[in-house]
Protein: Triosephosphate isomerase family protein
Organism: Populus alba
Amino acid sequence: MARKFFVGGNWKCNGTIEEVKKIVTMLNEAEVPSKDVVEVVVSPPFVFLPLVKSLQRPDFQLAAQNCWVRKGGAFTGEISAEMLVNLGIPWVILGHSERRSLLNESNEFVGDKVAYALSLGLKVIACIGETLRQRESGSTMAVVAAQTKAIADKASNWANVVLAYEPVWAIGTGKVATPDQAQEVHLELRKWLHDNVGAEVAATTRIIYGGSVNGANCKELAAQPDIDGFLVGGASLKREFIDIIKSLTVKKSQL
């Protein structure tokens, strides 16, 4: 079964009301392949979610950039999964490397977050990836396997999980993993899922790539057999995001 191409746009901590309206207008006017062949999810900052939801084209979906690990309550500054459900936001990004490194979110904490969000019916873009030091020491697969195991130990509904491999050294640096480097890790991740979770999960789970993806490199990356789409950072705020969405045409020509 072919895995539906997935493109996520992580706006990170960017935007004003005026800028957000401009980005949404640009996306709304874009001609892109139908939602039957590519799933597009954009992830603005929390404060803009209702605005984008009210303006955005119906074939694109929304994701929050994070949510709390359990039910809401006395957790100042946090956003609960229940709130996202209440707002009608179907997706959430969890375990992004910026949160792992800047806010010290551990593998286990991310695994708990993923399991809790899934339990409430949210779909999860779960992020994993190694640092430059880890890659240079040859421990890439050990690192991403440990991150994936922490999710697999707690999560059951893999149908609602997209795994985003984002090598930390390639995020926002302009460095990008070569197509061969990215494909190698994606293939190993799929093998890990096959051996540790199950053959069906390995065959159907989408593993997307993130890390300085742009209009210039997306087609070469998309052509790799185990790259099922992208989680895009800075480029998702620009017109080239449309080119990245269209990069699935490379995939279709292979089918």
Notes: The longest strand covers residues 5-10. Residues 89 and 232 are 19 Å apart (CA to CA).
